[in-house]
Description:
312 residues, mainly beta, Methylamine Dehydrogenase, Chain H, 5-stranded antiparallel beta sheet, 4-stranded antiparallel beta sheet, 1 helix, 1% helix, globular
Amino acid sequence: MNTPATDWSQSGRGRRHPVTAWTYSAGSKPATLDVDLESGDVSIVTADEHLHLLAPDGSRRCEPLANCTGPAMDWADTAIGGVVQLGPRRAGWVDQQGVTHWVVDCHNDILDVATSPFGNAIAISFSDRQNVILDNNQQPIGEFTSIRPLKYLRLVPRRPVVVGSADTGVLSSHSITGDDRWSQQIWTNVGGMDINGNGRTILLAAYNHGIQRFNNRGRSQGFYDIGGTAHITSVSYIGTIIATATMEERFVLIDRDGSILWQATLPEPVTAMRCGPFGEHVVLGFSSGLIQCLRWAPWSTNRPSSPEDSEA
Protein backbone atom coordinates (compact mmCIF):
# COMPACT_ATOMS: atom_id res chain seq x y z
CA MET A 1 0.00 0.00 0.00
CA ASN A 2 1.21 3.51 -0.74
CA THR A 3 1.91 5.70 2.26
CA PRO A 4 -1.04 8.10 2.64
CA ALA A 5 1.27 10.91 3.76
CA THR A 6 3.08 10.96 0.43
CA ASP A 7 0.21 10.82 -2.01
CA TRP A 8 -3.47 11.04 -1.06
CA SER A 9 -3.62 14.65 0.17
CA GLN A 10 -1.96 15.87 -3.03
CA SER A 11 -5.06 14.93 -5.03
CA GLY A 12 -7.49 16.83 -2.83
CA ARG A 13 -9.60 19.73 -4.07
CA GLY A 14 -10.56 22.96 -2.35
CA ARG A 15 -9.86 26.61 -1.68
CA ARG A 16 -6.51 25.99 0.00
CA HIS A 17 -4.25 22.99 -0.21
CA PRO A 18 -2.90 21.53 3.04
CA VAL A 19 0.63 20.40 3.76
CA THR A 20 1.58 17.33 5.77
CA ALA A 21 3.03 18.73 9.00
CA TRP A 22 4.14 15.32 10.30
CA THR A 23 3.40 11.60 10.33
CA TYR A 24 3.79 8.94 13.01
CA SER A 25 3.40 5.16 12.94
CA ALA A 26 1.51 3.83 15.95
CA GLY A 27 1.81 0.24 14.72
CA SER A 28 -1.82 -0.56 15.50
CA LYS A 29 -5.25 0.85 14.63
CA PRO A 30 -6.03 4.03 16.59
CA ALA A 31 -9.11 3.63 18.77
CA THR A 32 -9.19 7.31 19.71
CA LEU A 33 -6.97 10.37 19.67
CA ASP A 34 -7.05 13.84 21.15
CA VAL A 35 -5.16 17.13 20.86
CA ASP A 36 -4.13 19.30 23.81
CA LEU A 37 -5.37 22.75 22.76
CA GLU A 38 -2.74 24.66 24.74
CA SER A 39 0.41 22.66 24.00
CA GLY A 40 -0.55 20.95 20.73
CA ASP A 41 0.43 17.55 22.16
CA VAL A 42 -1.34 14.53 20.67
CA SER A 43 -2.47 11.46 22.63
CA ILE A 44 -3.50 8.22 20.93
CA VAL A 45 -4.96 4.97 22.27
CA THR A 46 -4.48 2.03 19.89
CA ALA A 47 -6.24 -1.29 19.46
CA ASP A 48 -3.27 -3.12 20.99
CA GLU A 49 -3.95 -1.24 24.26
CA HIS A 50 -1.08 1.23 24.15
CA LEU A 51 -1.13 4.97 24.85
CA HIS A 52 1.11 7.03 22.57
CA LEU A 53 2.04 10.54 23.71
CA LEU A 54 3.37 12.85 21.00
CA ALA A 55 4.81 16.35 21.00
CA PRO A 56 3.30 18.95 18.63
CA ASP A 57 5.77 17.93 15.91
CA GLY A 58 4.69 14.27 16.06
CA SER A 59 7.75 13.03 17.95
CA ARG A 60 7.33 10.69 20.92
CA ARG A 61 7.38 12.17 24.40
CA CYS A 62 7.99 8.70 25.86
CA GLU A 63 7.73 5.05 24.92
CA PRO A 64 4.12 3.87 24.35
CA LEU A 65 2.44 2.90 27.62
CA ALA A 66 0.93 -0.60 27.81
CA ASN A 67 -2.35 -1.70 29.43
CA CYS A 68 -4.37 1.32 28.27
CA THR A 69 -7.39 -0.56 27.01
CA GLY A 70 -9.38 2.41 25.72
CA PRO A 71 -11.15 3.42 23.68
CA ALA A 72 -12.31 5.95 26.28
CA MET A 73 -9.81 8.81 26.64
CA ASP A 74 -9.98 12.59 26.93
CA TRP A 75 -7.01 14.92 27.16
CA ALA A 76 -7.18 18.18 29.09
CA ASP A 77 -6.66 21.46 27.24
CA THR A 78 -3.97 22.89 29.52
CA ALA A 79 -0.87 20.67 29.14
CA ILE A 80 -1.51 18.65 32.30
CA GLY A 81 -2.48 15.22 30.92
CA GLY A 82 -5.79 13.44 30.59
CA VAL A 83 -8.13 10.71 31.77
CA VAL A 84 -7.65 7.31 30.14
CA GLN A 85 -9.53 4.01 30.35
CA LEU A 86 -7.07 1.52 31.87
CA GLY A 87 -9.37 -1.48 31.93
CA PRO A 88 -13.02 -2.39 31.34
CA ARG A 89 -13.91 -0.91 34.75
CA ARG A 90 -10.86 1.24 35.53
CA ALA A 91 -9.83 4.79 34.61
CA GLY A 92 -6.82 6.87 35.59
CA TRP A 93 -5.08 10.20 35.11
CA VAL A 94 -1.91 10.15 32.99
CA ASP A 95 0.33 13.21 32.58
CA GLN A 96 2.35 14.33 29.55
CA GLN A 97 5.33 12.24 30.60
CA GLY A 98 3.26 9.07 30.86
CA VAL A 99 3.10 8.99 34.67
CA THR A 100 -0.17 7.72 36.16
CA HIS A 101 -1.22 9.95 39.07
CA TRP A 102 -4.36 8.19 40.22
CA VAL A 103 -6.65 5.28 39.34
CA VAL A 104 -10.33 4.65 40.11
CA ASP A 105 -12.07 1.27 39.97
CA CYS A 106 -15.67 1.51 38.81
CA HIS A 107 -18.82 -0.51 39.42
CA ASN A 108 -19.56 -1.32 35.77
CA ASP A 109 -18.09 -1.28 32.28
CA ILE A 110 -16.93 2.15 31.13
CA LEU A 111 -18.34 3.55 27.89
CA ASP A 112 -16.65 6.96 27.78
CA VAL A 113 -14.74 9.48 29.89
CA ALA A 114 -14.40 13.27 29.73
CA THR A 115 -12.37 15.91 31.52
CA SER A 116 -12.62 19.64 32.06
CA PRO A 117 -9.79 21.82 30.67
CA PHE A 118 -8.00 21.91 34.05
CA GLY A 119 -8.76 18.34 35.11
CA ASN A 120 -10.82 19.46 38.10
CA ALA A 121 -13.89 17.56 36.90
CA ILE A 122 -14.02 14.08 35.37
CA ALA A 123 -17.14 12.50 33.88
CA ILE A 124 -17.57 8.76 33.30
CA SER A 125 -20.47 6.98 31.59
CA PHE A 126 -21.27 3.31 32.16
CA SER A 127 -23.05 0.55 30.28
CA ASP A 128 -25.81 0.33 32.94
CA ARG A 129 -26.94 3.93 32.14
CA GLN A 130 -25.28 5.35 35.25
CA ASN A 131 -23.03 8.41 34.92
CA VAL A 132 -20.78 10.04 37.51
CA ILE A 133 -18.82 13.29 37.77
CA LEU A 134 -15.75 13.32 40.02
CA ASP A 135 -13.62 16.17 41.37
CA ASN A 136 -9.81 16.21 41.23
CA ASN A 137 -9.72 14.11 44.41
CA GLN A 138 -11.84 11.46 42.69
CA GLN A 139 -14.80 12.24 44.92
CA PRO A 140 -18.32 12.29 43.41
CA ILE A 141 -19.79 15.74 42.86
CA GLY A 142 -22.66 14.64 40.64
CA GLU A 143 -24.40 11.61 39.17
CA PHE A 144 -27.37 10.87 36.98
CA THR A 145 -29.11 8.03 35.18
CA SER A 146 -29.56 8.46 31.44
CA ILE A 147 -32.42 7.11 29.34
CA ARG A 148 -29.91 5.02 27.40
CA PRO A 149 -26.22 4.29 27.99
CA LEU A 150 -24.16 7.28 26.85
CA LYS A 151 -21.54 6.02 24.44
CA TYR A 152 -20.22 9.54 23.81
CA LEU A 153 -19.54 12.01 26.59
CA ARG A 154 -18.13 15.56 26.72
CA LEU A 155 -17.60 18.18 29.41
CA VAL A 156 -18.16 21.60 27.86
CA PRO A 157 -14.82 23.46 28.24
CA ARG A 158 -16.28 26.86 29.10
CA ARG A 159 -19.31 25.76 31.12
CA PRO A 160 -20.00 23.33 34.02
CA VAL A 161 -22.08 21.16 31.72
CA VAL A 162 -22.00 17.54 30.53
CA VAL A 163 -23.29 16.56 27.08
CA GLY A 164 -23.81 12.92 26.18
CA SER A 165 -25.21 10.85 23.35
CA ALA A 166 -26.26 7.23 23.04
CA ASP A 167 -25.38 5.41 19.84
CA THR A 168 -29.06 5.81 19.01
CA GLY A 169 -32.14 7.37 20.58
CA VAL A 170 -31.06 10.21 22.84
CA LEU A 171 -28.88 13.31 23.14
CA SER A 172 -28.89 14.92 26.59
CA SER A 173 -27.23 17.49 28.82
CA HIS A 174 -26.74 17.72 32.58
CA SER A 175 -25.00 20.05 34.98
CA ILE A 176 -21.83 18.71 36.60
CA THR A 177 -23.88 18.18 39.77
CA GLY A 178 -26.11 15.80 37.81
CA ASP A 179 -29.15 18.04 37.37
CA ASP A 180 -31.07 17.47 34.15
CA ARG A 181 -30.85 20.35 31.65
CA TRP A 182 -32.50 18.91 28.54
CA SER A 183 -32.99 15.71 26.57
CA GLN A 184 -33.51 15.41 22.83
CA GLN A 185 -34.89 12.39 20.99
CA ILE A 186 -32.75 11.52 17.97
CA TRP A 187 -33.92 9.16 15.27
CA THR A 188 -30.60 8.09 13.76
CA ASN A 189 -27.66 5.91 14.66
CA VAL A 190 -24.62 7.85 15.85
CA GLY A 191 -20.99 7.08 15.03
CA GLY A 192 -19.43 9.98 16.91
CA MET A 193 -20.09 13.26 18.73
CA ASP A 194 -18.17 16.48 19.22
CA ILE A 195 -18.81 19.95 20.67
CA ASN A 196 -17.08 23.30 20.36
CA GLY A 197 -15.58 25.25 23.25
CA ASN A 198 -18.70 27.05 24.47
CA GLY A 199 -21.03 24.10 23.84
CA ARG A 200 -23.21 26.05 21.41
CA THR A 201 -22.45 23.68 18.56
CA ILE A 202 -23.05 19.96 19.14
CA LEU A 203 -22.40 17.64 16.20
CA LEU A 204 -23.41 14.02 15.70
CA ALA A 205 -21.95 11.88 12.92
CA ALA A 206 -25.23 10.27 11.88
CA TYR A 207 -24.18 7.98 9.03
CA ASN A 208 -26.67 8.31 6.13
CA HIS A 209 -28.25 11.34 7.82
CA GLY A 210 -25.07 13.41 7.54
CA ILE A 211 -23.73 15.57 10.36
CA GLN A 212 -26.62 16.48 12.67
CA ARG A 213 -26.22 19.82 14.43
CA PHE A 214 -27.77 20.96 17.73
CA ASN A 215 -27.35 24.09 19.82
CA ASN A 216 -26.64 24.39 23.54
CA ARG A 217 -30.32 23.99 24.37
CA GLY A 218 -30.65 20.74 22.47
CA ARG A 219 -32.56 22.28 19.59
CA SER A 220 -31.91 20.86 16.17
CA GLN A 221 -30.16 23.24 13.77
CA GLY A 222 -30.50 20.92 10.78
CA PHE A 223 -27.72 18.88 9.25
CA TYR A 224 -24.75 19.03 6.90
CA ASP A 225 -25.12 16.79 3.87
CA ILE A 226 -21.58 15.84 2.91
CA GLY A 227 -22.56 13.31 0.26
CA GLY A 228 -21.57 10.15 2.11
CA THR A 229 -22.02 8.01 5.22
CA ALA A 230 -20.57 10.15 8.01
CA HIS A 231 -19.14 8.00 10.80
CA ILE A 232 -16.74 10.42 12.50
CA THR A 233 -16.59 14.20 12.92
CA SER A 234 -14.64 16.87 14.80
CA VAL A 235 -15.26 20.59 15.22
CA SER A 236 -12.68 23.26 16.03
CA TYR A 237 -12.73 24.83 19.48
CA ILE A 238 -14.07 28.11 18.08
CA GLY A 239 -16.73 26.20 16.14
CA THR A 240 -16.02 27.50 12.63
CA ILE A 241 -14.31 24.49 10.99
CA ILE A 242 -15.70 20.93 10.85
CA ALA A 243 -13.79 17.84 9.69
CA THR A 244 -15.60 14.66 8.70
CA ALA A 245 -14.73 11.25 7.30
CA THR A 246 -17.16 8.92 5.57
CA MET A 247 -17.39 5.15 5.31
CA GLU A 248 -16.85 5.60 1.59
CA GLU A 249 -13.32 6.75 2.52
CA ARG A 250 -13.77 10.42 1.80
CA PHE A 251 -12.48 13.31 3.90
CA VAL A 252 -14.41 16.59 3.91
CA LEU A 253 -13.54 19.91 5.58
CA ILE A 254 -16.42 22.39 5.78
CA ASP A 255 -17.12 25.72 7.43
CA ARG A 256 -20.00 26.41 9.78
CA ASP A 257 -22.28 27.32 6.88
CA GLY A 258 -21.66 23.93 5.25
CA SER A 259 -19.46 25.20 2.41
CA ILE A 260 -16.79 22.71 1.42
CA LEU A 261 -13.32 24.10 2.08
CA TRP A 262 -11.36 21.02 1.02
CA GLN A 263 -12.07 17.37 0.23
CA ALA A 264 -10.15 14.30 -0.86
CA THR A 265 -10.42 10.54 -1.27
CA LEU A 266 -8.85 8.68 1.63
CA PRO A 267 -6.44 5.80 0.98
CA GLU A 268 -7.84 3.71 3.84
CA PRO A 269 -10.42 4.04 6.63
CA VAL A 270 -10.00 6.78 9.24
CA THR A 271 -10.72 5.50 12.76
CA ALA A 272 -9.88 8.61 14.81
CA MET A 273 -9.72 12.32 14.06
CA ARG A 274 -9.35 15.66 15.82
CA CYS A 275 -9.43 19.31 14.70
CA GLY A 276 -6.97 21.88 15.98
CA PRO A 277 -8.49 24.77 18.00
CA PHE A 278 -8.92 27.08 15.00
CA GLY A 279 -9.33 24.37 12.36
CA GLU A 280 -5.85 25.21 11.14
CA HIS A 281 -4.86 21.55 11.35
CA VAL A 282 -6.48 18.14 11.58
CA VAL A 283 -4.89 15.00 13.03
CA LEU A 284 -6.07 11.80 11.34
CA GLY A 285 -5.63 8.23 12.55
CA PHE A 286 -5.75 5.57 9.82
CA SER A 287 -6.68 1.91 10.28
CA SER A 288 -3.11 0.85 9.43
CA GLY A 289 -1.78 2.73 12.48
CA LEU A 290 -0.50 5.74 10.54
CA ILE A 291 -1.14 9.11 12.23
CA GLN A 292 -1.01 12.17 9.97
CA CYS A 293 -1.30 15.88 10.68
CA LEU A 294 -2.57 18.06 7.84
CA ARG A 295 -2.11 21.81 8.19
CA TRP A 296 -3.74 24.71 6.35
CA ALA A 297 -3.03 28.41 6.30
CA PRO A 298 -5.28 30.13 8.86
CA TRP A 299 -8.92 30.36 7.82
CA SER A 300 -10.76 33.65 8.08
CA THR A 301 -13.14 33.77 11.03
CA ASN A 302 -14.77 37.07 10.10
CA ARG A 303 -18.43 36.17 9.78
CA PRO A 304 -21.69 37.54 11.24
CA SER A 305 -22.84 35.96 14.47
CA SER A 306 -25.90 33.73 14.26
CA PRO A 307 -28.78 34.17 16.76
CA GLU A 308 -27.73 31.02 18.68
CA ASP A 309 -24.32 32.57 19.45
CA SER A 310 -26.01 34.93 21.86
CA GLU A 311 -28.00 32.22 23.67
CA ALA A 312 -27.06 31.55 27.27
